[in-house]
From TrEMBL:
The gene is trhO. It catalyses: uridine(34) in tRNA + AH2 + O2 = 5-hydroxyuridine(34) in tRNA + A + H2O. Residues 126-220 form the Rhodanese domain. GO terms for molecular function: oxidoreductase activity, acting on paired donors, with incorporation or reduction of molecular oxygen. It comes from Microvirga aerophila. This is tRNA uridine(34) hydroxylase.
Amino acid sequence: MTYKVAALYQFVSLPDFQDLKEPLHRLCADLGIRGTLLLAHEGINGTVAGRPESIEAFVRELTSGALFGGRLDNLELKYSSATEMPLRRLKVRLKKEIVTLGDPNVDPTERVGAYVAPADWNALLEAPDVVLIDTRNDFEVEMGTFEGAIDPRIKSFSEFKDFVGSNLDPKTHKKVAMFCTGGIRCEKASAYMLSRGFEEVYHLKGGILKYLEDVPQPQSRWKGDCFVFDERVALGHGLRERSMEPAADGSDE
């Protein structure tokens, strides 16, 4: 059997996020879906897996069903497949943030950096004045990254603020490009950097996963594999499985 995996997120105001936990869990359970979904006042984030028809029904409910009432109208979705169920259990968690930066003044629903489509990413990287930053954790960077990217050497995303404060200056670093697994960390990181006075901030739309899906390997600037938060552990170009050791439970936080 082939399972369909959906990585998803959207920054959107959800003042009723606590009330959404139980019906969202029930929806997934009824469809036989496993994975982890995070809910917060700022939106939804997670990775789930199930039979293809179950994932399709789940996404229909999120985007056009009564549960979210049409609020998930810009849901970022990336699909891949697995030959075995890659997620161990089902969890819906309530959080302060759907990706933890730790700055309550940063609001990606108001302002983020400029999106760069995967097809245009290589051209941006060729600009001589671009500072390229990998916003992921150090163990993820070790598995693979883009040529010439700076590794902030962080253990968790909440340390990104300290990296920026110690290593980057808006007066010196005029053009910053960032990337992450699926795009969510970069949305919040770009919002943070704009709030700190950086003027030109770019991020890869759809993240590394979308780049590996869209850009042919001969034209790719990616080196290595991309860590994913499930038992497949890593994906390569074309989002092919690179199974190694069992990993986490499906949340890219």
